[in-house]
């Protein structure tokens, strides 16, 4: 399934312009200058992030418990019991040629990043991040290939993998851009390993891994039929075009508000771009994970969020034990809730990965549609556009 040729690109262009221009214009109109850290890369730790707030933390805990309750028992929230499975089971096939080499590359890079290899390998430590993640992606893609009988991004659409990687780089550089306006919720303390130009180049390569790693974990989750089925028969929600248009303005307005009050509104860092991009794709006539909710299928939205959280639970573990020679090591300075860390991430921060996963998928759909590339990533039919052997590959 591909998107209609009638998809209009103007809303896509306007949505992208709104994401870039709104923070910049708001900052200049209100303050007349750029943030003090502007132009420094990687961004340094901000000196004025608010400390712990019991009220905000309590609200966050209440929201987190509500999310966990929904994931554990969706029928309490209006979901019907899963339907009996239909159709023949897919017969697993042998692992593809790239799976085992990918796993070996990931394990060797993992050991390198943690300083577990001989001292002679130390000069390679700063360059361990990219092969670690791409090895992980290739290995997991091979597992998806086996479980689906031969359907995966690498096997079906290798050209799309490169396009997703390029989009991933653009996506995360946007968040580094937005981070300048929000007091550096995250920063990279090992900032004296490369030159600034070196950091820009190396981080650009590192950022290519964000979307592919989330997508391959999502694909793996969709192959678990009972997990997928528990979220496929939920309440149906359909928004009118007028409502979507109003939501797009809410997204832009909330992005401006984030720049004005970055500490109290810090969750909007992930929510505002999601609203802006989702509504622009919808107004352009495209499919998003939220489109499936019209017929009660919440599985795409839920599973992409879970995939992101699981993916970065592993990523946070890799990051935490990295050596001081790892330029990609990151830390957090999140307003009000920077306590109870699991690795470097505050416990409540893991719930922020749920909307971030949705945002990553919508970002890819937006860019793929804008440049005429089939945005399909699903390996299991029934949720969204599924992988096909496309001409662009």
From TrEMBL:
The chain crosses the membrane at residues 51-74, 95-114, 120-140, 160-180, 200-227, 247-264, 270-290, 297-314, 347-365. Keywords: Membrane, Transmembrane, Transmembrane helix. This is Small-conductance mechanosensitive channel. It comes from Nannocystis bainbridge.
């Amino acid at each position: 399934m591909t998107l209609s040729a009638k998809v209009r690109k103007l809303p896509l262009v306007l949505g992208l312009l709104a994401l870039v221009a709104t923070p910049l214009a708001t900052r200049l109109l209100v303050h007349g200058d750029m943030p003090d850290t502007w132009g420094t890369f990687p961004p340094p730790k901000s000196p004025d992030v608010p400390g712990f707030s019991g009220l905000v933390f309590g609200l966050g805990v209440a929201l987190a418990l509500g999310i966990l309750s929904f994931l554990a028992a969706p029928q309490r929230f209006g979901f019907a019991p899963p339907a009996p499975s239909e159709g023949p089971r897919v017969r697993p096939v042998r692992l593809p040629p790239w799976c085992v080499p990918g796993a070996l590359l990931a394990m060797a890079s993992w050991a390198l990043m943690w300083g577990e290899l001989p001292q002679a390998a130390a000069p390679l430590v700063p360059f361990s991040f990219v092969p670690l993640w791409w090895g992980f992606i290739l290995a997991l893609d091979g597992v998806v290939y086996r479980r689906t009988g031969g359907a995966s991004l690498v096997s079906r659409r290798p050209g799309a993998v490169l396009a997703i990687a390029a989009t991933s780089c653009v996506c995360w550089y946007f968040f580094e851009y937005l981070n300048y306006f929000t007091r550096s919720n995250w920063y990279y303390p090992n900032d004296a390993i490369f030159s600034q130009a070196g950091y820009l180049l190396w981080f650009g390569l590192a950022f290519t891994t964000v979307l592919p790693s989330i997508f391959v974990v999502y694909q793996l989750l969709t192959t678990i039929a009972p997990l997928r089925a528990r979220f496929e028969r939920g309440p149906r929600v359909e928004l009118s075009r007028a409502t979507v248009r109003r939501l797009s303005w809410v997204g832009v307005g909330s992005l401006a508000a984030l720049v004005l009050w970055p500490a109290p509104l810090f969750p909007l860092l992930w929510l505002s771009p999601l609203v802006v991009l989702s509504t622009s794709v919808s107004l352009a006539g495209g499919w998003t994970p939220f489109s499936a909710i019209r017929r009660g299928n919440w599985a795409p939205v839920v599973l992409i969020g879970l995939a992101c959280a699981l993916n970065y639970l592993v990523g946070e573990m890799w990051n935490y034990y990295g050596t001081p020679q790892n330029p990609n090591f990151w830390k957090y300075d999140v307003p009000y809730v920077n306590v109870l860390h699991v690795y470097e991430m505050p416990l409540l921060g893991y719930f922020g990965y749920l909307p971030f996963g949705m945002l990553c998928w919508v970002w890819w759909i937006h860019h793929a549609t804008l440049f005429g590339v089939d945005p399909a990533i699903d390996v299991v039919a029934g949720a969204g556009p599924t992988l096909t052997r496309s001409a662009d590959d």
